[in-house]
Amino acid sequence: xxxxxxxxxxxxxxxxxxxxxxxxxSQSLQHTNxxxxxxxxxxxxxxxxxxxxxxxxxxxxxxxxxxSGSGSGTDFTLKISRVEAEDVGVYYCMQALQTSLxxxxxxxxxxxx
Amino acid sequence: QVTLKESGPVLVKPTETLTLTCTVxxxxxxxxxxxxxxxxxxxxxxxxxxxxxxxxxxxxxxPSLKSRLTISRDTSKSQVVLTMTNxxxxxxxxxxxxxxxxxxxxxxxxxxxxxWGQGTTVTVS
Lengths: 113, 125
What we know:
The complex is a heterodimer. By secondary structure, chain A is an all-beta fold. Chain A is 0% helix and 48% strand. In chain A, strands 2, 4, 5, 6, 9, 10 and 11 form a seven-stranded mixed sheet that branches. In chain A, strands 1-3-8-7 form a four-stranded antiparallel sheet, with no helix packed on it. In chain A, a hairpin with a 6-residue loop joins strand 4 and strand 5. Chain A starts with a strand and ends with a strand. Chain B has no helices and ten strands. In chain B, the strands form two sheets. Chain B has a six-stranded mixed sheet with strand order 2-10-9-4-5-6, with no helix packed on it. By secondary structure, chain B is mainly beta.
């Protein structure tokens, strides 16, 4: 199994300030095609998860450009350039390289200070 | 517009079999590029992928639950069904289904779990 580890567990942020979440995998997520099979999801309070970023750095349709994903191999980062109130929730990374066993990180809770 | 909607019992007794249905619209379960995953979330805990199925009926299950899970699809009803046998209180969770890209070496065909259902909450007691 590929184990996904996120940090921090909780992230208090100030509106308008940047935020950064880390995700590490126990194995490289880089496919032989050169792409990293790492997704980011946001679960707002009381809502279903929604896709933010796929293949490590591709924003999903409709996702604001203040969200950006980066990284390769085993280390990945999700950055929010300027946090807005609607960004509150729990962020999850998920590996999709091992297609027979998809695994999520433990989540990072983002809240406003 | 692509939508998925989960349905199933709210309350299940221990040792019973849980049957959950995901009804999809806006895409076909025969589409070779995509399938459906089931994911669950116990109260206050993280997401856990359970299983997925694709148009060629290829299935995968999380190993820890493989002996208890069965996923199937009914294309005529646009439904994906997940059954879980011998449930226990630890299976209490919100269960989600999500559209899932079929595994392929072509990165251009990968799009993440781009549409999720609203979830259905199941209590085992």
